[in-house]
Amino acid sequence: MTTIPVETTMFSPEELVRHLRALRERIPTLDPAPAPAALRRRLSHVDADFVQAAISAAGTSEVVEKALGRTDEDLRADVEVSGRWTAVADELRKLLQSVLATNTVRRQRIGLAALQTYKICQQLARDDNHAELTVHINEMKRLNKFGRVRRRPAPAPQPETAPLTKTA
After folding, report:
1. Closest Cα to residue 44, out of 76, 77, 72, 86?
2. So what's the pLDDT on residue 66?
3. In the predicted model, is pLDDT for residue 165 greater than 70?
4. Contacts 24+ apart (CB under 8 A), 46-53
5. SS3 for 5-30, per residue?
6. What is the dihedral of CA 94, 96, 99, 103, to 10 degrees?
7. Within 10 Å of residue 38's Cβ, how many Cβ atoms?
8. b/e map of 82-113 (b: 16 or more CB within 10 Å)?
9. Which of 72, 88, 142, 153 has the greatest number of beta carbons closer than 10 A?
């Protein structure tokens, strides 16, 4: 197994997108199974023990292999390759979660800086030397979703219903 040298420089978002697109171009794609779409979803969840039993059955009968158009060796190879691609999918999921978590922290830091800026501007605007901040404070106040008192709309009046009367 060859080792991949680890680069010490960090990717920019644009570089990473270029690399991911290049990787995506090199990933083999397959035609979907010849079955209705609703069934295809279920086909990928067939029990692994059942699959192994079916492969063993196919390998014991040439008639079954001819009917399938595949040998048991082909089927075993597909199972093995599927397992390897599952490992790739797991790593990609972890990569996505890492990117999402990092970007959430980044947005939190940005949000904190923006709210701190608002409070600092409010404090500075008390001094006439910083009156120019008033325009910005008013705009931030208009756009601020934090600290805004939201009034709940009055509930719609319930239509009065006539009492039910028994009819004979």
Report:
1. 86
2. 94
3. no
4. 51/79, 52/79
5. CCCCCCCCHHHHHHHHHHHHHHCCCC
6. -130
7. 7
8. eeeeeeeeeeeeeeeeeeeeeeeeeeeeeeee
9. 72
Where do we find the tokens 């979660």?
97
Q: What is the per-residue pLDDT across 110-164, written as a single tens digit (0 to 9) for each?
A: 999 999 999 999 999 999 999 999 999 999 998 887 766 667 777 777 777 666 6
- The rounded distance, in Å, linking the Cα atoms of 111 and 95 is 24
Q: Which tokens go with 168?
A: 């004979």
Give tens-digit pLDDT for 46-81. Answer: 999 999 999 999 999 999 999 999 999 999 999 999
C-alpha to C-alpha distance for 118 and 144, rounded to whole angstroms = 9
Task: Fill in the amino acid letter for 120.
Answer: I
Residue 11 to residue 17: CA distance in whole angstroms: 9
Q: Which residue has the tokens 């601020």?
A: 144
pTM above 0.70, yes or no: no
Which tokens hold the place of 67? 């009917």
| C-alpha span between 107 and 97 (Å, rounded) | 15
